[in-house]
């Protein structure tokens, strides 16, 4: 794939929770850094107005992607919170429709940061519970042409789905039925022996891709093999957006679960700017290289010889000769 993918940024880079009042400034700032899409967290229903948001994004010519937040009290495994969590996810689907997002992404299993040991039998029961809890929400999403993109998290943030293989196994009955995968380079870096191989394993089920430096900081200058990462995305024909997901330490919902204890760049603006510049230049370079390879291949292709003129068949003379 040589066409550059759209790049986006999660508003968690700057603020938590997102509000209607802060949206215009964030959209203006993100657009100025070169982002074409805002990733919008729904931390609490009502924090921001979807209709106003759609108008603001249209004004700035930006797209939207909805993400859910599995903070305290949101859990599909714990029966105490299951019904409320299902209602919350349906609300996220409704918001996605209002702002034009084809996906709702997030770690839709248990509350982020809730970890515990499980033997094989308990894990099977947890996965069965997860499937049954997700099924009605997945049906609700599928009926509205929205996909729930379930995100594997690293071992320190969940005990349930850490790897792509685990996600494919756990979600198999629901995949393509309102459920896909969201892959985050940060979690892939921790849990996968090869992030690129994990992307290829996800294949067409990969519906959302989030990126950041290996330390949750700016993209570029980190130890991630970004060319290998992009090669894998090309191999699965992923044409969706790449969204920068990082956090301010002031994030009320997820900073503790994500262990954001220190600044990840000199400023949050610098984190966003550097990431946008790196992604833009990387994609420009890759597209240029691909174009040069195609041009060279065409130049080296043997020239086709003109076919010899066909002689009239003496047994079957032409119509002109028959006249």
Would you mind describing this structure in some detail?
This protein has 323 residues and is α/β, with parallel strands linked by helices. It has one domain (7-302): Alpha-Beta Barrel (TIM Barrel). The protein has 10 helices and 8 strands. Strands 1-2-3-4-5-6-7-8 form an 8-stranded parallel barrel, surrounded by 7 helices. Helix 7 (195-202) runs parallel beside helix 8. The longest helix has 33 residues, at 268-300. It is globular and about 65 Å long.
Topology:
Blueprint: E1 7-10, H1 20-33, E2 37-42, H2 50-60, E3 63-68, H3 82-99, E4 103-106, H4 120-143, E5 147-150, H5 164-171, E6 179-184, H6 185-191, H7 195-202, E7 206-211, H8 226-235, E8 242-244, H9 268-300, H10 319-322
Parallel strand pairs: 1-2, 1-8, 2-3, 3-4, 4-5, 5-6, 6-7, 7-8
Helix pairs in contact: 1-2, 2-3, 3-4, 7-8
